[in-house]
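Chapter review: from sequence to fold.
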Amino acid sequence: MLHTDGRHQLGIRDLRADLATHVRRAGRGERVVITVDGEPVAQLGPLTPSEEPTLDDLAAAGLVRLPARYDKPAAGASPPILPVDLSPDRVLAELRGDPPRRR
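The token string follows.
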């Protein structure tokens, strides 16, 4: 699977099934991130890296952990403080860019 930053990401089963092809790709300079249960754990790549490490590289090296979900706040984060005098209609109107209503 092609990852969002142009690197190839594949599961351990796919790696085993076609190891020679992926090793050749690494020899040509491509980096291939290996995942176990969807979590990056290792990478195949050229002997001399040519760029700064990405988040996937750092996760594969065990230096950072990727978030389990991207749609919820981090643990310990406080909820946003919202004014209590706003109606949902007013919030939606502001998000849409509607002109303010007169009262």
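Two observations follow directly from the output. Residues 8-60 form a domain with the YefM-like fold fold (CATH 3.40.1620). The longest strand covers residues 39-44.
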